[in-house]
């Protein structure tokens, strides 16, 4: 197993800072990436990706699986509620998975309440805003350490 954490971001997250700032805030995805790297520290490799294309997210999950990555943090965005293909890819990953959402999806419209990804996620985080990514990185490091001790 490597010390690599994959952080995967789904559709429209490239628009962070511009898209519905009353929901998602003013922080850009580049700023989120820097926050994740700073939180992880020098000993952890971060693979940070964003795509509006479902197949690319699936390919990165496969890559994480093949490389023996330590963990996956995924904000699948709209694919959370629609993608059985991402769910199936995540089922193949042996490490911890954190599903992350910037907004509290449970306070939003009913269409956002049924996550397919939650079915395989080790943990789910929602509603902490962009700083939730730093919290997720710290939690992932704890999950990885706990798995290494077991």
TrEMBL record:
GO MF, any single term: 3-dehydroquinate dehydratase activity
Gene Ontology biological process terms from the UniProt entry: amino acid biosynthetic process; aromatic amino acid family biosynthetic process; chorismate biosynthetic process; quinate catabolic process
Enzyme Commission number(s) from the entry: 4.2.1.10
Coiled coil residues, start to end: none
Any Pfam family the entry gives: DHquinase_II
Catalytic site: 24 (proton acceptor), 101 (proton donor)
InterPro entries: DHquinase_II, DHquinase_II_CS, DHquinase_II_sf
Family label: Belongs to the type-II 3-dehydroquinase family.
Subunit structure: Homododecamer.
NCBIfam families: PRK05395.1-2, PRK05395.1-3, PRK05395.1-4
Protein name per the record: 3-dehydroquinate dehydratase
Native organism: Ketogulonicigenium vulgare (strain WSH-001)
Gene: aroQ
